[in-house]
Amino acid sequence: MTFSVSEYKKLIDAMITAQTNDEKGRSLEDLIQYLMEQIPGIDIGARDVRGDINESWRV
Asked: What is the pLDDT of residues 10-22, one digit of tens each?
C-alpha cells in the first residue's frame, strides 16, 4: 500500500469530527490501521476479534 496524503487527511478529519465515543474510537482505529499497514510486512488480518479477554475487563 502506498501512503496517500489525501487518505491520511480524510482519516484525521474523521477523528476530529467524530461525535460519539464509538465514532471516536472507530476513527482512531481506522487511522492506526492505515498507518500500521504502511510498514512493509505488516498486515492487519482482522479487527474486533474477541477472545477470552476483552476491553471490558476490570482490575
From this structure: 999 999 999 999 9
Helices 21-36/5-17 angle, 10° precision: 160
Please list, in sequence order, all residues whose beta carbon lies within 8 angstroms of the beta carbon of residue 7, skipping any fewer than 6 positions away: 34
Q: Are 44 and 37 in contact (CB under 8 A)?
A: yes
Question: Region 23-47: what's the mean pLDDT?
Answer: 89
Matching residue, cell 477470552: 52
Contact 13, 27 (CB under 8 A): no
Write down the pLDDT at residue 54: 56
Q: 3-class SS at 59?
A: coil
